[in-house]
Amino acid sequence: MNLTDTHCHLDAEEFGDTQANIVREAHAAGVNRIVVPSVACANFDIVRTLCERFPDCAPAYGIHPMYTDTAMPDDLAVLREFLQHHQPVAVGEIGMDFFINHYDQARQEFFFVEQLKLAHEFDLPVLLHIRRAQDTILKHLRQHKVRGGIAHAFNGSRQQADEFIKLGFKLGFGGAMTYPRATKLRELAATLPLESIVLETDAPDIPPDFLEKGLPNEPKYLSRMAQTLAELRGMSPEQVAQATTANALTVLPHLADYNRAPD
To answer: How far apart (Å, rounded) are the C-alpha atoms in residues 87 and 254?
Structure first.
């Protein structure tokens, strides 16, 4: 298979210094491209270094909504430099999170909008983090046009899904889809247009149903997630891999520059 993990935090503390093994095992499982989003200025350089070390890992740079409380406006200038000089495939991970306690909506919206402006300036797609903020994010996307992107870990309604698709977005599905009790999410995975779906792990987070409790999620598990999607849609895993990788390359066109593994 030729799979693409469109969202993996390869620099996460949970992985320690085992990234080489993680990437090697991902390749063995058919995962030939891995998108590595950043979350704050503090890890821009770490993400850049990892993606230089592993040529089929592609960086994205952005300020995550859960890090906006400590972010400073000057961080946007640092982000601009990374977008201009370090060949990202997207601006991300950005967005809004109204699930966390004591969130500052105005601060989140400020950083989100400013990063949408940068994405527009550099003609880059965006990787969206969305929790309990679907409609607010859609409002800003309509006001600040970007070239689409991925709604990461999508968990909205069918109506919201259709609105993201109209704006040029693909929807990310991964570990959450493997839980039989996630009936609404599985229905979306089964019935949305296939060309609107990409696969992701969000490793080390969002562990799949089949993973032993307490273990970190990893890109190598994407092949089993693809199998789940194939079963839901009545397709072969190879067909799902081909389609979702094509979707990823469509929405993240610079991603092709990072793949040095055989197709």
So the answer is: 8
What's the rounded Cα separation, in Å, for the pair 210 and 24? 21
Contact 204, 217 (CB under 8 A): yes
User: Which ranges in the chain belong to alpha helices (H)?
Assistant: 19-28, 44-53, 75-85, 105-121, 134-143, 158-166, 183-191, 222-233, 237-251
Domains and CATH numbers, the chain: 3-258 (3.20.20.140)
Q: Measured between alpha carbons, how far is residue 245 from residues 126, 191, 242, 259 in Å?
A: 17, 18, 5, 12
User: 202 near 39, Cβ under 8 Å?
Assistant: no
pTM over 0.85: yes
- Token pair of 173 as six digits: 């599905």
Give tens-digit pLDDT for 190-211. 999 999 999 999 999 999 999 9
Q: Note whether 259 and 32 are within 8 A (CB).
A: yes
Backbone angles phi, psi at 201, to 5 degrees: -105, -30
- Angstrom CA distances, 217 to 9, 176, 197, 204, 262, stand at 10, 11, 20, 4, 24
Count of C-beta atoms within a 10 Å radius of residue 211: 16
Residue 147: CB atoms within 10 Å: 16
Predicted confidence (pLDDT) per residue in 34-57, tens digit = 999 999 999 999 999 999 999 999
